[in-house]
# Entry
Amino acid sequence: MDDHPDPGDPTLDAGQLLSAYAQGCFPMADGPTGEVSWYRPDPRGIIPLDGFRVPKSLRRRVRSGRFGITLDRCFDRVIRECAQPRSEENGTWMTDSLREVYLDLHHLGFAHSVEAWLGHELVGGLYGVTLGSAFFGESMFSRPGSGGTDASKVCLVHLVEQLRARGASLLDAQFVNPHLLQFGALEVPDRVYASMLGRALGDATRLEGPWME
# Structure
């Protein structure tokens, strides 16, 4: 969006990025070119915290305790894993300079990660940004070949538990896809999203600060 700073600009800082999120915008790089643009999709994907659904098979996986779950233990590793290209054609939506700004947000307490472990091996995770009582989900990953089948889904279940416990009101998923539909994700018009975001930003509940247990 033209009225926001260029995310590829090395002068972009954490404050500018938070300002964009507060306006409902987020940055994303084009894989083949590496050019980064701002997005505010309409309709917007959200996951209602009071309507979150966990499929039975996943519920069993969570209860099995197969994965060790941590919070904010290795944000840098999670964001690097999430930024890995999904294919040679698509590339990544992340740049080195943009990743550094997210790391700054993490150090300031405005970005968080949930990690899944098998022993000492990181096999899944997700990360996002917080403002007020809103959590803006950015990306997730898992390593099925390393035993991490469903690891990112288990992380999402734990994320929702954390958000509920901390009084969150909005879980922004950006876009809805078949993977998220099983959890109750839905699309809302931009005007509805703007109202939800405004209430979340004005909420006394705050999700900032370290989540590490």
